[in-house]
């Protein structure tokens, strides 16, 4: 008995204990745990967990489905996964950057709606040359997001307003006001959403023929990858990143050291806002083409947890986004094949995020076990 | 005017009781962004208990209606238990735990409501139908000009809320328990040194916040749609958070904030009706409480003091 | 490789129903369609039905959900306007049959198209609305009735116009003197920007506003409300439930009797119908028999596709009302009565009784 | 004499360290036992176990001859053990009474029904208690409004209210003025005389000499010796503690002071609540001069330093640094103009605990060449080099060198890191606020030597300290503040300790 426990403990230490890549190992451990929880859940419902997970991967284009519809293949599914992952990467980065500076940006959803709306209205219905239009969409998205981010940062810095409350209020205000304009000006009576933007303005080449396949090609996916590395570089290597992290860990000490705290907060929020804005345009003018009135995209909230799963690092956020979106994209196929409610996938994702939220506990526990092991 | 007051109160009071839940949790030092999820899960649990009880016992629904409020509190408390475990036992980041619990609550209630309706009631639905909540009017008081509306045509749950709110205020400000809760939010180490059990106090405060949110959520379910459905997640939990932050984590000012939100809302509806604006302006009216909050916060946030130890993980060893 | 080759020779039809967030168990619109499928499966036990839900309600997401699974099935039943854009997918998968409810398919450019493998059905909501109007006019005691809608999209305006036509018809032909109450602040603006009046909540999911509108109408003396407003309608129901039986409502799309119970009573006067289940079952049968033909159909009373609930114990209409409604129903079937609709060329006020 | 408390073979481990190693120690009834030891020697840990905050890993604690499991402060209370913690354990937004009665609140019933905390009678009881022991407090004051010395009195009253027989004081004098220390020592003595047993943790040998009966010396978690104070010299005690001889006095070379470096003219500072904290203060500091500001804590000294450093705004007046007006300059401008600042609170202000040592050592220079290039990119090699140099030069002891998380370093080494960073700036003016607070004798000696040699190098030094001995030992010029005003500025050798103490209490008023 005693021996068994110590074996389990040793395994646990191996997963979450001190050493290289402790954060990464803990995250992986959390993922495995939640997959286990999912297995139990599926078994309770009398389903084959192996099949279920496989069909999720198939649905997301990681594995091959037994058959494909006309002009579809595993590659098209995978490209579609990348297309849907793009906004999540931006959103998770937005949350992560703000968190590094000690700011909790819960306004990502609102910013997404705002930037998506601005780009839709300003460029989405114009007849601009595709190249110009797409560039403009990206610029307007980043700019309008940055503007809102700046507002939040400024209110926090100048008026000491709690950014969480400001963000909650802004989310609702934006959602209702944008809904008002869509309902009165830009409504498509059939879809009951804003009129779809022109192909010229879309950041995703939709149904783009490649051979005999029709692909979704996310033009901004490379931009998302670039953003990941850019943010990593900024945080690790630049003066500004140093200041941002300093303010996030101890704003008093930062001020004492001569760092302009307010400036750092506002600039961080500008970056975070711009990223959220990019998430908005890549969502509303990329994977989608129109805006649902009165709906805040849940992606903006999921991004918080995703950023956390990625340990608020840039690279981590990317892989966490990919993982969560694999679940998201594969769910429909799984629910269809396995005849289970699709909430299962949402539940597994929630459980995953719960586990990753207590990653710090796992690490401490592992450290303690390690201590005990060393002392004995 | 009457409608503004009657409707305003029936919205303000559930909001208020949820906000008190928030004050308990945050007053003890545990950030609670999960109110939205807690109120939804509470309403789910209350609705489920009503569905089960009314099918098993039938008869006079009045007793069941009141009983369901109690079950809603249990439900809210159950989910709050998870938040408490996450924050206190597992030392998770409290903000993140709150956000994740909101997500979980939405997924879980939708899943369970479907599954339970299908497997036990043989009904394909994600809703639980409820009964209309009894209303009352107090004979003499209701005749007072203007103020009389307060005593006119109110849901009896409003009375329950007032009683519970008074009780919670009494506990928080007059009893040793309340003193300990507030001490936990300010300096948990002081309480520990005085022999108190910080973990326990915080644990029960979070549970209380869940129970109160559940109560408020159930009242919303009754007053707005007389059903439990996933539509319950309308953002009122977040509004409650705004209310107590606005009220500086004190019950009295928070009450005023809730009244303000409720009246801004009901007043907005009446205003639109009076001004005969087209319905599309409804969206703009709905922004009123949020804009009011933002503007007022602009002026008051410098005096706004959160509990000193809010959001800090309590570690006995840390000094 | 064509999809058909890889498919096993199925013993029975493999059918999927794809719905928007509320799912096939919404007790309403989606469920009625699902019931049609279930009825078919019951008669053809080899057939298989799978329900798939798309949780966001966004049109792009709805189409993606359909595309994700299209290869797996012989028939896709897509319920809701969100699936209008299915045209492209249908063209690429000619061997899969599509049944589209409440909208016609559009191609990539958004133009409505007719496709050989798509049977799309929409309903003459104005006819259902008309029956509601007649019923309300005959049953009101205060002589004030109203209609509450979600957003002034064509289907909702059809319901509203139909209802108003019904009241006007009753006033002219059936000896009633009933007034239609409209809150000016709730006037709708339809998709062309025209003011269509009525009582619009501005959303299909705002129960709180629905309740406020119900109360405001009740305060103005209205005792019967026709509710065609999705989840927002639940709020109106609540207002009715709290009125101590003085306010009644008329449900829509499906029989909403079960949603109306309050204590031992019920607030549902009757419900007016879009008969989807029968039509879905009929088309599935055609597929099974090989007589399927793609079409974009507007279904009306002449095929019994619109109507009202007169089953005993599911409505509270007086027998005389039912009789008069039956008479009106016959006239509508014969197109003697053509109620006003959003794009029918005339408004309720311009409605002429022949 | 009877042994009231007995530690038998107590061992306590923390991750990576044995804080208490097989300690056996007894405390006699009615004595004052002092506990002496370097930082991190394990004094607080040992006492925390007696008070139930931690439980020992091995060994047992006997109280009144009986083995007790003290699992929480509640148990300690029941055993009549009380403790004044090194860091006060008070709820800031509650009243003095509420803090004192917390955990054992007297109750009464409102309307004969609802139990409520009986604040009224508690106020009276606290009032009586405070008069009885000459520990004046106003029971109705809120903690956040009262000064440190009052807070300490509250902590003592808290113990007395609980009828504690065994009183533990963990570094109680670190935050007090000489007069307050004097009176605290008297109080402790009178408590002993009234029959209480007292355990006193302190780094100050003269206090031990003054009141303690015996002295236990801890070193690196082990009990070295227990000495009779009356028969032991101060030198012997400190040598035992540090493990070597420590010189307790400095030889200071007299030399002429040079040019004026800092000039403060009529500076006033008001708080957010519009209370005047600093009232029209003027002084100047010269090259090679140590100007020490003495004063009871909370009399505006720290605010002056913060104002000079630019951390808080001033209401009126002028500040000149080497002739440049820096009154409105940004913090960074001031640093660049030649200002180093060792702040009072090293955790909250001086360091970023979650950064590693290298980053903290570069905290004030990271933005300029060679640590950043002109495009704003950090140069890790240069930063590493700086870190290594400073770690070497200032003997900062760490587990992982440059990469050590500062949070995991001991207080003394954290302080060394700050001092290293600030001295490395090579500023003309260096401000030290409470540089030796909470540090052990060895560490203090090192810092004092360092300050002295900076003076010899011709730096202008502004020293702000509550430790009067430190002020007298180091200062060339002494400025005493009271209530935000300058009481006096004099040559150090013109003032006696007693006089300074009187100025600090506002007794003397300078006649102009
Ligand atoms: N909670 C803790 N977790 C880990 N290690 C601790 C903890 N508390 C104390 N230690 C370790 O135990 C040792 C003894 O610490 P303690 O606080 O008892 O020292 P001390 O003698 O009171 O020092 P000081 O004079 O600085 O107050 C320290 O060196 C520290 O490393
Ligand atoms: N919670 C903790 N976890 C790990 N180590 C700790 C903890 N608390 C204290 N320590 C360690 O204890 C040692 C001494 O800490 P302590 O705070 O007593 O230092 P100090 O010199 O007394 O400083 P201070 O002026 O803050 O009292 C340090 O090594 C510190 O890192
Ligand atoms: Mg100590
Ligand atoms: Mg210490």
UniProtKB/TrEMBL annotation, chain A:
This is ABC transporter permease. It is found in: Cell membrane. Its main location: membrane. The keyword rRNA-binding does not apply. The keyword Transcription regulation does not apply. The chain crosses the membrane at residues 28-46, 81-99, 106-125, 131-152, 164-182, 217-235, 264-284, 304-328, 340-362. Keywords: Cell membrane, Membrane, Transmembrane, Transmembrane helix. InterPro entries: ABC_transp_permease. It is a multi-pass membrane protein.
Automatic annotation (TrEMBL), chain B:
Its main location: membrane. CDD domains: TM_PBP1_transp_TpRbsC_like. Keywords: Cell membrane, Membrane, Transmembrane, Transmembrane helix. GO terms for molecular function: transmembrane transporter activity. The keyword Transferase does not apply. Pfam families: BPD_transp_2. It is found in: Cell membrane. GO terms for cellular component: plasma membrane. It is a multi-pass membrane protein. InterPro entries: ABC_transp_permease. The chain crosses the membrane at residues 6-24, 33-53, 65-88, 95-116, 154-173, 203-224, 284-300. This is Branched-chain amino acid transport system / permease component. It comes from bioreactor metagenome.
UniProtKB/TrEMBL annotation, chain D:
The keyword ATP-binding applies. Keywords: ATP-binding, Nucleotide-binding. Pfam families: ABC_tran. It comes from the Bacteria. GO terms for molecular function: ATP binding. The keyword ATP-binding applies. This is ABC transporter ATP-binding protein.
